[in-house]
Specification:
Length: 245
């Protein structure tokens, strides 16, 4: 039976940013502690250059260090974060490029023993971003996102990331695949009650309001987010879309 390494996530008040990921069975890698702290800071600021440098730091470590579950999970999260920044910059090429390598690292992390709840959740998020890049990418990556969501639900049905992925999937998927902004709104509003301090939930709920034609509700929700978190690139991206006529 595969040994599952337990991780602790510090949820930052930004979109799905993994903070320090501590593995009880992996206590000797002090460099990972530093790398995780750097990741948290870079992710908060949406600092693409710092994230790229961090990916290089991991890649330059000895192979046995790179292949530890904790390092692989961190590497996958760094690459996913770069994919999210590419989404905010509307770069389809980089969304697909970073998405593919992120999924690859997360698969390696899962095989090495990382928590399936986390690896499946992040893979689903990466597939969701790729699925939004045209019909062909949607046909390929949409079902893969749904598959990873089921794995996350099995591993931790009430986990924050599981619920977030489910709601995002409802907001993004086409109607024939079960997608519906109204359904997403219900899911996000339930999350707001359970996680009232989560900025990422507010951002995605605002987007769902916009898709459902509730533009004023969306703008009222997103406005204080961009004011309080001016470095949150995703919040600004959604706010700009909502401001468009």
């Amino acid at each position: 039976m595969r040994t599952i390494v337990n991780y602790r996530i510090i949820l930052l008040l930004i979109i799905v940013t993994a903070g320090p990921l501590h593995a009880s069975a992996d206590t000797s890698s002090s460099w990972i502690d530093s790398a995780e702290s750097r990741y948290s800071a870079a992710a908060t600021q949406y600092d693409m250059e710092a994230l790229r440098n961090l990916a290089d730091v991991i890649t330059l470590k000895p192979v046995d260090e790179q292949k530890k579950p904790r390092a692989l999970l961190l590497h996958g999260c760094v690459l996913w974060r770069l994919q999210l920044i590419a989404f905010c910059k509307n770069s389809e090429k980089d969304i697909l490029r970073y998405g593919k390598v992120s999924v690859k690292k997360l698969k390696e992390a899962e095989t090495a023993g990382a928590d399936m709840y986390l690896t499946a959740s992040y893979k689903a998020l990466a597939y969701q971003l790729m699925a939004g890049q045209g019909i062909n990418n949607g046909a390929i990556n949409g079902p893969l996102a749904a598959k990873e969501l089921k794995k996350a639900q099995k591993a931790n049905p009430k986990g924050y990331y599981t619920l977030l992925v489910e709601a995002i999937n409802a907001n993004q998927a086409p109607s024939f695949a079960g997608g519906s902004p109204q359904k997403a709104i219900v899911l996000f509003e339930k999350m707001i009650s359970a996680f009232p301090d989560s900025v990422d939930v507010k951002i995605h709920l605002a987007e769902a309001y916009g898709k459902a034609g509730r533009k004023e509700d969306a703008r009222q929700l997103i406005a204080p987010v961009v004011k309080e978190y001016p470095s949150n690139l995703l919040a600004w991206t959604i706010a700009d879309r909502l401001a468009a006529p």
